[in-house]
């Protein structure tokens, strides 16, 4: 049996930090024709061909994100496909940056005192957040399809182009304060159609109003999880699908088509250390499900990463709830896009009383409690009178 070793090929510049595609080499160490592992795999084998994780692209391999957007989903038009192409490129660059051995130096250097930020002091943006923000803005400018970008890292939306038909809202690097501990982070984004009826207004005003659309008007939303794998999860309004970055080909390939969150889970995700600050209704709910005395007669377990994208991703796959009961998470950049995703997977997003997507934003950086999860778990949670934490003794929001 012939043996092979891994070699590095094709460095791809990503904001000054190289990433590499791996190719198999013969044991003599000389480059052959450069056949990648992806192309050497037998995609025609019955096991792979019948796997629900794989969908043929017509070339014997798994469907890529762009093949899915361009050919596999009738809801995606040309403008949106182009925009998604540029967004996925930006997220590949961010993934390389997050995984770089140099990022620890970036995260330790705080921005200058005069740096503008809409975040609280606890969430003050680090340079890595700012770099991710600039990468996304640059990609949206290059796409020619974005009229507005509204970001958690900017005080106000940026008007990009009079010709752009789409509006993008984003949290460029959620959970960045966890990077030094190698805890997963993520990018969250939502996409709207530009409101052409506002075109007569001054740029600042129409940029603001375009970014303040309700979640019900989203045409697409997604997140990218930077973890042991880089996963891009997206919905165009008819199902939720996850694509995993294949580092051999540099493509996001379909690995989780038509995600359906279980109607019930057995996991809840929340900061239990704040238990004594919670309102009575939330304490009663958590006590009840932990003891297996709720509507679902099994004892629930707690799983909490303190990284919104990671906690949400696990909840989407396994079911249950991910929550923050205090007025902390942003409606525009976090709650709306993630609620759109979970609803298209059969779940629900709520502030504890009201469906998230029905809430009309009134401020760009508006905060609110957020509960996301399985439909029956969410219905049981909302049956309790008081689950929103209105006071925050001993710590800042």
TrEMBL record:
Keywords: Carbohydrate metabolism, Hydrolase. SUPFAM superfamilies: Carbohydrate phosphatase (SSF56655). It catalyses: beta-D-fructose 1,6-bisphosphate + H2O = beta-D-fructose 6-phosphate + phosphate. Pfam families: FBPase, FBPase_C. Its EC number is 3.1.3.11. GO terms for biological process: fructose 1,6-bisphosphate metabolic process; fructose 6-phosphate metabolic process; fructose metabolic process; gluconeogenesis; sucrose biosynthetic process. Residues 76-257 form the Fructose-1-6-bisphosphatase class I N-terminal domain. It comes from the Eukaryota. Residues 261-384 form the Fructose-1-6-bisphosphatase class 1 C-terminal domain. This is fructose-bisphosphatase. It comes from Dioscorea zingiberensis.
């Amino acid at each position: 049996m012939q043996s092979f070793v891994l070699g590095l090929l094709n460095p791809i510049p990503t904001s000054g930090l190289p990433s590499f595609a791996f190719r198999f080499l013969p044991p003599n160490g000389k480059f052959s024709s450069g056949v990648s592992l992806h192309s050497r795999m037998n995609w025609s084998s019955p096991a792979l061909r019948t796997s629900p994780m794989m969908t043929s692209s017509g070339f014997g391999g798994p469907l890529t994100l762009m093949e899915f957007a361009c050919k596999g989903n009738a809801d995606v038009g040309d403008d949106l496909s182009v925009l998604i192409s540029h967004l996925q490129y930006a997220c590949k660059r961010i993934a390389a940056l997050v995984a770089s051995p140099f990022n620890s130096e970036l995260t330790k250097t705080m921005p200058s005192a005069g740096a503008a930020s809409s975040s609280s002091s606890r969430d003050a943006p680090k340079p890595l957040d700012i770099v991710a923000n600039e990468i996304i803005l640059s990609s949206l400018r290059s796409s020619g399809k974005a009229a507005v970008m509204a970001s958690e890292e900017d005080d106000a939306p940026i008007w990009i182009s009079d010709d752009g038909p789409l509006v993008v809202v984003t949290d460029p690097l959620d959970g960045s304060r966890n990077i030094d501990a190698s805890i997963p982070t993520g990018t969250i984004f939502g996409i709207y159609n530009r409101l052409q009826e506002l075109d007569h207004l001054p740029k600042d005003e129409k940029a603001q109003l375009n970014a303040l659309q309700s979640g019900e008007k989203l045409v697409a939303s997604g997140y990218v999880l930077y973890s042991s794998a880089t996963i891009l999860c997206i919905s165009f309004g008819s199902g939720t699908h996850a694509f995993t970055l294949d580092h051999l080909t540099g493509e996001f390939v379909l690995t989780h088509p038509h995600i359906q969150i279980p109607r019930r889970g057995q996991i809840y995700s929340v900061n239990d250390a704040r238990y004594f600050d919670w309102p009575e209704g939330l304490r009663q709910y958590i006590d009840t499900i932990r003891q297996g005395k709720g509507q679902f007669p099994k004892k629930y377990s707690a799983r909490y990463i303190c990284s919104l994208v990671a906690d949400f991703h696990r909840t989407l796959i396994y079911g249950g709830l991910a929550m923050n009961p205090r007025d902390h998470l942003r409606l525009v950049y976090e709650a709306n896009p993630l609620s759109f995703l979970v609803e298209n997977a059969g779940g629900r997003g709520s502030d504890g009383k009201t469906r998230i997507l029905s809430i009309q934003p009134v401020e760009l950086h508006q905060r609110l409690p957020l509960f996301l999860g399985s439909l029956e778990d969410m219905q049981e949670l909302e049956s309790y009178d008081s689950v929103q934490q209105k006071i925050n003794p001993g710590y800042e929001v």
